């Protein structure tokens, strides 16, 4: 058994006080890069509302979110993402979240972001937090373009458990190899992964997850004084 611990972090409303997927689509819409801005905003809002009700599948989200990637060249997308990081993400990275991650890194823990949001949007964000590993929903990439489809298993609900186990297996590891395994998440969608770690931590939890955490005796951690546009 390894002597180091495993620390897994959801991203949206967990390390960030916002939803990076929603904010990316909104950024493209308000900068005129998502076709009809009003239509894009309505679609974005509808997807968020369905997610909050637990009625959204990864495939339904991908049709819109990954379609935004497929509509543009990687060169354009990369330049726009740099603007997005500077304008939206970095100003939202708060000290308590940065300190939480830094504490695990300093302890020598194996750290990864585990998020349903696609890897194009989230890879630079994980790097900005100093987290070396990312398990995200992968956008299919063929012949120099994004296709608008998902590659492999989405990192969503029970898919997060599968993806984490696959990632560990590639390193000849398993969850049982760690004396302690942490998962920080705000969402009831992440209950499957919260249930398989030794230290489930409901972080800035939605009302539903807060109730579940209290019922099950899970730790509750509130990193942010107030949260707007909260995912449940």
Characterize the structure shown.
The protein has 232 residues and is of the alpha/beta class. The protein has one domain: Rossmann fold. Helix content is 45%, strand content 19%. β5, α8 and β6 form a beta-alpha-beta unit. The longest helix has 16 residues. It is globular and about 50 Å long. The C terminus is likely disordered. Belongs to the HAD-like hydrolase superfamily. SerB family. Keywords: Hydrolase, Magnesium, Metal-binding.
Descriptive key words:
19% strand; HAD-like_SerB; 45% helix; 232 residues; disordered C terminus; Rossmann fold; single chain
Question: Short summary of the structure?
Answer:
Belongs to the HAD-like hydrolase superfamily. SerB family. It contains nine helices and seven strands. The protein has 232 residues and is an alpha/beta fold.
Order of strands in the sheet with most strands: 4-3-2-1-5-6-7
Instruction: Give helix and strand order, one letter per element, not per position.
Output: EHHHHHEHEEHEHEHE
Q: How many structural domains in the coordinates?
A: 1
Rg from Cα? 17 Å
The fraction of residues in strands falls at: 15-25%
Termini gap:
35 Å
Overall CATH architecture: 3-Layer(aba) Sandwich
Q: Name the CATH homologous superfamily.
A: HAD superfamily/HAD-like
Mean pLDDT, to the nearest integer, reads: 93
CATH topology: Rossmann fold
Q: Which structural class matches the secondary elements?
A: alpha/beta
Oligomer: single chain
Broad CATH class: Alpha Beta
Number of strands: 7
Largest sheet: 7 strands, mixed
Low-confidence stretches: 227-232
Q: Could you estimate the helical fraction of the residues in percent?
A: 40-55%
